[in-house]
Every structure is written in C-alpha cells, then in structure tokens.
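S.,

Sequence below, as promised.
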Amino acid sequence: MTKPGRCEACGGERVSKAFDADEPGFCVARCRDCGLGRTCPDVPDSDILAYYPQTYYGRGNVRFNRLFEAMTRLFQRRRARVLVRLVAPGPVLDVGCGRGFLLKYLQGLGYEPHGVELSDLAAAHARQRLGLDVQTDDFLQSRHEAGRLRAVVFWHTLEHFRRPQAALARARELLAPGGFVAVAVPNSESLQARLFGRHWFHLDVPRHYFHFGTRSLRSLLEAEGFRVVKLDHFCFEQNPYGWLQSFYNALGFTPNLLYALLKNESARTMRLRRHPVQLALTALLLPVLLPASLALTLLEATLRAGGTIEAYAVKAGGASGNR
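The prediction came back faster than expected:
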C-alpha cells in the first residue's frame, strides 16, 4: 500500500492500513487519532468517471423499482422539511443534486434552487424535466457568487471528493454569514461498519474516497470554519438497509445481490438469472434479517452510532441565518 500521508481531518500522521476492500486492488487506511478512513489508492480524476457508468444512474436517472422510487421522493421531502427548520428562504446549492427532487421541493417552499452534478447524464432529469439550474462542473470551480448562498448541501456526496477539506472551504466561501452546510455521510464508526468491515454495504470503494465517523467529520467541519449545531444518527432511508445488505454480504452472497434486485433493470450491473439459489435464500432469510435490521437501527441510533450521520453546521463568524 502506498503510504497515505497525513490525515485530512486532524493532520495526524498515524495513518495505517485497516483492511482490504472487496473491490480488488483497494484497501481502507485509517487515522488512529480521529478515525478518518481513506480509500487507497485513490482513483485519479481522469479515471473516476469509469466508475460512474450509465448503469450507475439507470435509464432516465431512474435507479430503483417503482415502490422504492416513490419512497425516495418521500425521503427527499423529509430532507427539505429538516432544512426549512434551520435555513431562512434564499438561494441554496445541492452538490450532487441527482434528479433534483430535493431542490424542487425547496423551490416550492420559497427557496431559490441551484445544483451541481458530475455529468450531463446525471443532471438531465433536473434540468430537462424539473427546469432547475444545474451546472455540470467541478464544484471547486463552480460559477456561483461568493457570500450569497443560505445553504450548501452535501447529501452523501462529500465522501466522493478527493479533497473534502477543499469542498468545505469552497462551501464556506459561497455561504452568506450565518449560512448552513448540511452533510450526510456513511458513519465508519457505526455499529454496522465495525461489525461488517469490508462487507459493509455503505463502504462503496473506490467511489468513496473517504470514510467519515462522527469525530473526523466534526473535526473537518470545525477546521474549515463551521460550528456543528445538529447531529442525527437515525436515518430510515439508509440505516436499516445498511444492516440488511451487509448481513447478506457477510454470509457470502454475491456482493449487493439484493440491492441489484431492487434496482430498475437498466441500472443493474449483474444478471440475476445466474444466481437462482442465492435469490431463493435471500427471500427465505428476509423475514428474519429485516426485523433484526430494523431493531438494530433503533439500537445504533440510541447509542449515537448510526450507520449514517447527518450533520448541520453554521458558518462561524456571522449571525445565524436560521428561522
């Protein structure tokens, strides 16, 4: 393993290999001071798009079957309601906005929506069907006016940055005094992450360059001039499924087989017909593993060790922009 260097969150030098990833040729290194994990080696910018093929998004950016697509929209509404309680109406930027549902809901609540996406393919739905302002650009070089935004949202996108500290510094530059940054990331300090290790569903190597925990995320936010005002460890959208799929992975099933089953056919990268026995066993185990996953989600949230973290932080050095 190439020596990963100093920790991006705390600056510590005690960074060493934690485990090999399921993806061949990669491992996860971890800082022994703050717990921040890092994928090694990281994929250069020139090569990373190969890990985001059309099947990653699905035809028309529709990734899941109809039931789960409907649930996705409900979860986006919930995100919008959380932001409304913290952020006064004004311009907001969603970094990695996907199909733009969060921005559309915020627009209906009186906010001025803006988005940034990795590719034209990813931005197509938000632009063409929802009529939103979405740039296809490097966020670090995005053409937004400094000091104007009320909020910048990194919803499961900060871990996709090779330089997360630079992304947060850019967000601070764009925010008005008292503006908020909203960050959701998988929690590498969670019970499920510690139990499953390389089989943890939310690891997603090599697309996730970094693997945050509560300590490292707070350290990074504070180092870039933010004050954390809210931390949430319960997420019904992400955490129960993190347990469920990780159980199957750890039992030796083809990695993320159930996830592929739940996807729209155009978003699948594996042929399900090749795994009839595993699919049957998946169905047989579901009545046991699903209730266990729900119970463990409640337990980990109570222990402040949820599978994902939602952090809301205000730009330090200015009056709060909340309601």
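The chain has a mean pLDDT of 90.

Coffee later?
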